[in-house]
Structure formats: structure tokens, C-alpha cells
Amino acid sequence: MTKSRDRDGRGSHLRLVGSTPGPNPPPPAGVDDADTTPSVAVLDTLQETLLLDLAAAPPALHPVIAEASVARSAALLADQLWPAGRPDEIGEVERFFWADAARVLGERRDVDSFVLLTSLARTVGPAGRLPLQRAHLSRGRTQYDVPDWVARIAGFRLTSAIVSEDVTGDGLSVVLDYDDDRHPHTLVVFVDNNLGAIAKDVFVGPPVDRVVEAYQRGGRVTVRTVRPATAAGIILQALGHTHDHDEPPVTEDFEFFSGLLVNRLTQLPERPVRPPIRPSQSPRQREQLVEEFLESSYAVGLPGDAGDIARLWIDHAVDRTVGGPLRVSAILVELFLANWLPRKVLADSTYFGHVPLVVKAWLAFAGDRTQLDLDAVEEAVDAVDVWTPALEAAALDEPIGSVSGERVFLDETSTDLDEAYRTLSGLGSPPRPDLDGLDKSQAATLSVLAPHAWLLAGETLGIAYATDAFEIAERLVREAPDLLTKARLSTWPRAIVWHLAHHHRLVGPGEPLTPHALAADLASSAPTLRKTTKLLTDTLVLPR
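Above: the chain sequence. Below: its structure as C-alpha cells.
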């Protein structure tokens, strides 16, 4: 099953009057030049957008694309033309606009404007539906040369629904089947459990039998038939989670088809069924699960902090994702090892060195408890090795306290992964490293190494030096990845700061720092830093 991508390669074509300088485009055929109401300019833009969207889609999808294009434009209009004010004021502006739009489109005679009028009459909400439908009915009596597919716009009927769920619990797809002799299709909504069960993607798929066949052929999914009202409830809940984000990480297809999806869901004859409330795990239940793990054969030979690490895994899985702590997933491993743990926990190499062993044992334990296929467990276990460098790069040279293997949370209450940086230094959020072209191991290393160097330089030398440290760390991973093996990963950010301090002459007689004081600030020894810095400057040809 493939998705329709890059339909137009543009942003939104919706431009309101006066929003874009330049000459006005010529009016479409059949438009009176004297008609200059605001509706004319907006409708011309909607018609341009619709034509471009249709031109980029195969003819078999034209009824669906027309419906989606107009639904998206109508939603943008709602945001831009009547977003504020009392409800009665909003309704008056909206009613006036659509009444004028119906008048303008009702007076035109070209086929393209009739396609737009048909789409609006069958898509716009109650405020504009009646005048648009009257204009459409009036024009329909005398309009000629209309393509057959125009009659199918927004005329599809939902006949069935299925839910396909990945066995690893990373997400599920809700497939709505619209059965039609000439234009059968499905609307597929992907819900990402690793991002809090948000609706992340919406796209048009082939008929449902081909969708089921593709899922069954791919394996590692469960497919079940559900009532349309049940499917609608799952989707609406996921859309609510998406809208809770200021900038949700959704796909381009989501932006295009979400208006169509909402319109169709609101037209269901049945009331959506709310999904059951997900059970939460109390602290006692989490501790009991840790005890069961430690008493199992999978925990034999693990270090003494295995229980603490297992509890961190449980807390992350329950509090940050959907699916529970016994979910075995390579993506969940990546999120835990390369993202959450290095930024949430401050620990030395002894503690972080135990994490991969414990996580692998936990995955085997959870896979056995859930009777998951061995290949899925092995995939998740292999991911531990891929993302272990992220932990190694974040490890401290010296123990936090008097005992090696301790750990502390950088920020006990924040749910923002970057909050730790702001709390520690007042520097703001670190830049996001560019991971394009890197393999998974290099990407994991850079994702922690560069922000670590940025933070260390900003705290030790000052904000002005943080960006330089970040850029050197990026060059190190991209240009000299083999060099990383010649010293502990946690030493490289310190060596970068040592280099910057000497290059900018911040160290020496009469300067703010002495070599001994700088080495102490960096929690390392001067000889180690000199040796590592020489490797760095010689390989990257950095100015001394």
C-alpha cells in the first residue's frame, strides 16, 4: 500500500485579499470584472488551489481530492476570517461570506467554478450549506460538459472499518472503507503510540480487501473488524491528542486530508463510541513488576542496580508512551536509550554501563510474558547495541557522589526533554544536530555528543563559545568517526572545551583560567585533556 506524496510540493495556496503583494491574476472565465467583493478574491484562490491539487492527482482520485482540497481550504478560512469574537458575531461573518460566495459562484458559467461550487455545497458546514446548495442546484440545471466524477464528490458511504495494530505496540492504523463501484477507497489514520497516541498520518488507500491483504502479507500485525462508530471514537480521541500539541509532528498528508476526515466523521449516522479508558499503573504496581523481573531467571547475574534501571524503563514506557511497560519495541529502545535516559538522568559510566545489560534482560522477560515472536524480541535487543553509544557519550568521568554507579535526575518534574539544559545553565535549548546521511550509531552519538559539548562550553567558558563547541562536535562525528574510539566518548566534549579555551587565550597567566582550574571544572585531568585535544586538532585541522 503506497501513500500519495508530493501532490503539489507547495505550502497552502490560500491567500487572503492584500496578503500577497503583486499584480492580481486575471479573473476566471465568466467572472464579471466589476464584481470586486472580498468573496471573489478568496474564491479565485480556492479555485486555483483546487485545480492545482487535482492536476497533481490521478483521475481515479479526483472526487476524493476535490473534497479534501475544499475541506482544507474551508478550515483555513475559518481560522483566518472568523477566528475571534462572540459566537453570534462569528456566525454572522461566516453566513455573510458563504451567502456572497454562493451568489458569485451561482453567476459563473465555467466548468471549473462548478466543480468548486459542488465541492463547497457538499463540504461546508451549516453556516453556508443552504445558500451554496441552492446555487449548486440552480446551476446544475443548465451546466453542460461536467465530468462524470463531479457527481461523486463527497458522496461516498462508509461501509466498514478495521483496526490494524503492530505486535510491538508502536502504533495502530484505523482503516475506513468507502465502498463504491467507480471510486472505492479507504481513509487510513495512523496513531503513533510512541508519541502519546496522536493521529500522526492520514492518507487515502486502496480498497479495503487490498489493504488487509497487504497487512497480512507483511506480517507482525493483528487485524480486527470494528464498528464504524468504534473506529470514529478511536480516531477522534487521537485527533484530540494531536491538537493538544502546539506543533505536532504530523505528515504532509495529515495536513491535507484531516479536514476531509473530520467532515466525514461528523456525518456518520451513529454516535462515535469513546474508547475504554486506558488502565494506569500505580507506583505499587510498578514496584511489583520490578520484583517479578528480579525474581525471574532473566535477572540472574545482573548488577545490583538492575531494579532501579528496570523501574526507569517502566516509568518511561508508562508515562511517556502508550502500551504499557511490557511492550517490546526497537523504537521504544531508541527513545529510552538515546533520548530520555541521557537527558533525564545524570550518571557515571559504571551506572550507564549496566543499562544495556538490564534492558536486554528486561526485553527478554517482557517478550516471554507477552509471548511475543522471537524475531520481534531479537530486533529490540539488537537496537540496544545500536543506541548504547548515546549513553556512553553522556556518562560522567567521575562518580556523582562518593559511590560509583549512582544516578540522579536532572529534572524530576519536567516533561520537556530539553528543560534540563535550561535548568542547568540558563542557556536555552541546544540546537538540533543535523543527522542526515549518518547511520544509526553515528546519529545516536551525535544526538548526545553535540548538545553535551554545547552545554559544557556554555557553562564553563560562556554562552559565546557554545555554538563553536557544537559545530566541532558535529565535525568530529561526521569527519572522523574512527577517532571516537581513541578516547572515552565522554572525554571528547571536555577536549573540545579545552581546545576552545586555549584557542581563545582564556587560559594562562593573567587570564580567567589556569590549566589546573579548567581541568577541575571539566572533571578530568590536564594530561588526558591535552592528549585528546591534540588528537582532535590534528585530525580536524583546527586552529591552535
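Residues 96 and 128 are 8 Å apart (CA to CA).
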